[in-house]
């Protein structure tokens, strides 16, 4: 049963979706190649088969945990411990779905892929005002291009080894640059100091408590602060409403 | 050394956990439809989450190394400056990364 809610002629939209994805995410994809190469190099340097690199990068597709998995797999860590580690390191993903524009992705299969490939960078590039105008095809192309670059990089790294880009220092900076830019854009779109302070405070506290688990702790703290703020604002609204009625 | 079924099982377990974590909020969203809380989270989350990702990425910089993180900090300043000025993400990223790479590989 074809989805009749979609226009039959979808080529122009699909085309511009691809173009928009390339122009918004192209640099990040380029940055993913050397980072993925780092993962590939790590796999073969642990004496693991080269195909584990695309398997990790393509199937798990969750950044930092893949680097940890290489060490765990090389040490024959029990599968349950591997699952527990993946849960801890990736628990930050619990918070991304709430503001990711999945409703704009058309079709159940496409939605499933979009959830499946919802990495940090996809969340950062597509949520908030940036993703506010993104079409279904732009969202899917962005995620697919990120995944393709990451997997390609990991294969290159596993096959070529560290001789190629492994000598260049500082390539990881591309991700720092990306998040710097996205932070500036997010602040421009929503210049709200209290949000910046809450997030920065949560990040610093998490770094002080447990640097190794900084991301899940910081995001968890930040969400707790947002819940408190929501509750306070709701109570203030109710109080104001009550006053208007009674007095 | 390479026990293929073990490797497949390990990767499969990690992938299943990751997918479940990514899917849970969407499943909850159905139950929380039209909630004021969800609307607030949607509008407040992105800025804070992205800022936290930035702090996380910066915390990975090796400030104790021979370059003391000077290439990275210079790169951030250039990226932010160019982005504030031109509002062109590609240009900002190229400029900042170029500065960081040149300092890291040729100066320090």
From TrEMBL, chain A:
UniProt keyword annotation of Cell membrane present: yes
Keyword Cell inner membrane in record: no
Protein name per Swiss-Prot or TrEMBL: AzlC family ABC transporter permease
Main localisation: membrane
TM stretches of this protein: 25-47, 67-89, 139-160, 166-186, 215-232
Localization of this protein: Cell membrane
Species whose genome carries this gene: Arthrobacter horti
Keywords: Cell membrane, Membrane, Transmembrane, Transmembrane helix, Transport
Topology class, membrane: Multi-pass membrane protein
PANTHER family in UniProt: INNER MEMBRANE PROTEIN YGAZ (PTHR34979)
Family: Belongs to the AzlC family.
Family matches, as Pfam families: AzlC
From TrEMBL, chain B:
Transmembrane segments: 6-24, 44-64, 84-107
Swiss-Prot/TrEMBL keywords: Membrane, Transmembrane, Transmembrane helix
Source superkingdom: Bacteria
InterPro entries: Brnchd-chn_aa_trnsp_AzlD (IPR008407)
Pfam families assigned: AzlD (PF05437)
Protein name in UniProt: AzlD domain-containing protein
């Amino acid at each position: 049963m074809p989805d009749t809610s979609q226009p039959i002629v979808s080529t122009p939209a699909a085309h511009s979706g691809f173009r928009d994805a390339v122009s918004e995410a192209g640099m990040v994809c380029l940055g993913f190649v050397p980072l993925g190469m780092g993962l590939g190099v790590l796999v073969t340097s642990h004496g693991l088969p080269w195909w584990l690199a695309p398997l990790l990068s393509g199937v798990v597709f969750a950044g930092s945990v893949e680097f940890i998995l290489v060490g765990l797999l090389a040490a024959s860590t029990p599968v349950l411990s591997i699952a527990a580690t993946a849960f801890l390191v990736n628990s930050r993903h619990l918070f991304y779905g709430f503001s990711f524009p999945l409703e704009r992705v058309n079709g159940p299969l496409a939605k499933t892929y979009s959830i499946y490939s919802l990495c940090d960078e996809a969340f950062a590039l597509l949520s908030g005002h940036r993703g506010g105008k993104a079409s279904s095809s732009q969202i899917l192309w962005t995620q697919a291009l990120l995944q393709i670059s990451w997997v390609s990089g990991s294969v290159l790294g596993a096959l070529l080894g560290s001789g190629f880009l492994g000598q260049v220092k500082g390539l990881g900076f591309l991700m720092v640059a990306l998040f710097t830019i996205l932070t500036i854009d997010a602040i421009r779109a929503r210049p709200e100091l209290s949000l910046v302070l809450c997030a920065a405070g949560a990040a610093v506290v998490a770094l002080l408590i447990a640097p190794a688990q900084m991301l899940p702790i910081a995001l968890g703290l930040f969400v707790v602060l947002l819940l408190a703020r929501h509750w306070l604002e709701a109570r203030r609204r109710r109080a104001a409403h009550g006053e208007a009625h009674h007095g | 050394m390479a026990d293929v079924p073990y490797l497949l099982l390990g990767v499969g377990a990690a992938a299943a956990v990751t997918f479940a974590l990514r899917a849970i909020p969407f499943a909850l969203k159905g139950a929380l439809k039209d909630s004021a809380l969800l609307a607030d989270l949607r509008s407040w989350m992105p800025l804070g989450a992205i800022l936290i990702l930035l702090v996380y990425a910066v915390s990975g910089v090796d400030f104790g190394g021979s370059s003391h993180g000077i290439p990275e900090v210079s790169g951030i300043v250039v990226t932010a400056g160019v982005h504030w000025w031109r509002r062109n993400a590609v240009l900002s990223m190229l400029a900042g990364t170029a500065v960081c790479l040149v300092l890291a590989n040729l100066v320090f």
